[in-house]
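Prompt: May I have another protein with tokenized structure?
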Amino acid sequence: MEILDLRQLRSKDLAPLLEEEQRIWQGRLHWDYSHTTALILRFVDAQALTGYAAVEGGRAVGYSFFVCEDHKGLIGDAFVSNSFRNGATEVRLMTHVIETLQATPGIRRIEAQLMNFGGEPVRQWFASQGFQSYGRKFMCRGLENGLPNFPNSNQSHDRQGVVNPDQAPFPTRHPEVEIAGWDPRWFSEAARLITRTYHGHVDSQISDQYRSHVGAMRFLDNIVRYPGCGIFSSSSSFLAFGPSASLRTGGIPSSLCGMVLTSVVRGRVAHITQLCVDPEAQGLGIGSLLMDRVLERLREQDFRAVTLTVTESNQRALRFYERLRFSILNDFHAFVWDAPQEKSWLPGQGGE
């Protein structure tokens, strides 16, 4: 088996592998990956995609691509054909990717969320290379007429997945909160809401875009203005307004305190790309209000299912989605590497 630079391949070389990946995205995750596939193939023909392919007998059996963004390397995707998925192929392919990124001047951080790549051997290999790993869940809820094999929309589950029809109700909804449709005039404030919500949160360890206003703006740009995670649906995305810090004592609604953003990922399947509530307004049912509104709107628009992702260690969010009758379709990992801090030696101290 050879590991080749992607720029040595053409779209016809990679197309059969991407067709297999596309079938997995559609069958396992109910996600139309064809737009992403077409974009990848266009970049391959332009020799503008950085990454590697595993080639056996002249056939591409695996690939991974990455981009460099300021101080960070982002692994955009990685996939190995089912007949070559043995752990060794994945590790060999990823070794080339990681070594290239770590040798790139200025790169101090690497992030990867690999939806259809890996298994325990790959997780262990990432750990051996100094990466932190975070278990994540891809969840789905069928709506009124769910797709075949989608979760039953008439059941709720406790955190162990046991049907629990007597689940306790959501927190009392606050009468001062107002829900409005998405408005791009609130774009910058929405980014500030993200940084407030994710300050010290596990998800800000997975993606450092949550840590700054500039990073959150870039994240929103990818969600709202570009097809980074499906096609943004402004009609099923909502903003919550409330008096923030004075919410608990009853003030006048005046600030953005929550939002839910939704994209279309396949026909009548939607994906919730973001749900966040200001920390000072959490526990008052605002997240429930937003989810009720988006689920109602998706039903009105005749959507058949909705998906989302959540970090496994975020048990509060996981239980929340289970109470909303979401079920787990797929487990995957996010991987993060930060370069070790460089030692600095003062004059006369010497060094190693």
Observations:
- The two ends are 40 Å apart (CA to CA).
- Confidence is low (pLDDT under 50) at residues 145-149, 151-172, 245-253, 348-352.
- The longest strand covers residues 255-266.
- The longest helix spans residues 11-29.
